[in-house]
Amino acid sequence: MDSMEVEDLGVLSPKEFNQLYAILKFFSEPIRYPPDAKMQDNISYEIFINICYHLPPKDLLMLACVCKHFKNMLDGSILPISWDIWKTSRERFTPFKDMDPPKGLNEMEFSRLLNFESGCEFCKRNDKRIHIYWVACVRSCKECLHKRAKRKIFKLLHLNSRY
Ligand SMILES: [Zn+2]
Predict the structure, then answer these.
(1) Spans of all domains in the chain
(2) Which are the contacts of 8, defined by CB distance < 8 A and separation ≥ 6?
(3) Which among 18, 109, 23 is positioned nearest to 64, based on CA atoms?
(4) Which residues hold their Cβ within 5 A of ligand 1, which is an ion?
(5) How far is the centre of ligand 1, averaged over its atoms, from the C-alpha of 119 (Å)?
(6) Is the peptide bond before 34 cis (omega within 30 degrees of 0)?
(7) Which of 2-6, 70-74, 87-91, 154-158 is most confident?
(8) Cα-atom radius of gyration of the chain, to the nearest Å?
(9) Alpha-carbon distance 102 to 67, whole Å?
(10) Share of residues in the chain with pLDDT > 90 (%)
């Protein structure tokens, strides 16, 4: 990239123009799922799905953060087979085999909730004892839960005292 100085951007050579055109075209085309052709890195859709079926939930969660393509591929509302990938992964790699996602959570959100390795959802610490509080669907340490509960109760009392 050293050869491309800022002042070089003023006039584009035909080659640069074609590259820029290809990039803009790529980003302006709607993405369909599953894609017809190969995805970036030359991984076919089928291979991607196959790989995903062998990954634990924490790796799927990381994969969904890699890029928009992977995120969409793992989003069951875009590609319904993804719900099965998340479910299979949970059943194979976690002790929560026989549980369905709690009401209001989809398979991916459920996997995120069960991801104990990322610690408390609020303070992000994983050196404390972490619990899942099923009623609230949160993964939290006791301190954060107490802080949040106090704040909620205070808000409720404050709201009630105005009427
Ligand atoms: Zn916490």
Answers:
(1) 34-118
(2) none
(3) 109
(4) 120, 122-123, 141, 144
(5) 8
(6) yes
(7) 87-91
(8) 23
(9) 28
(10) 48
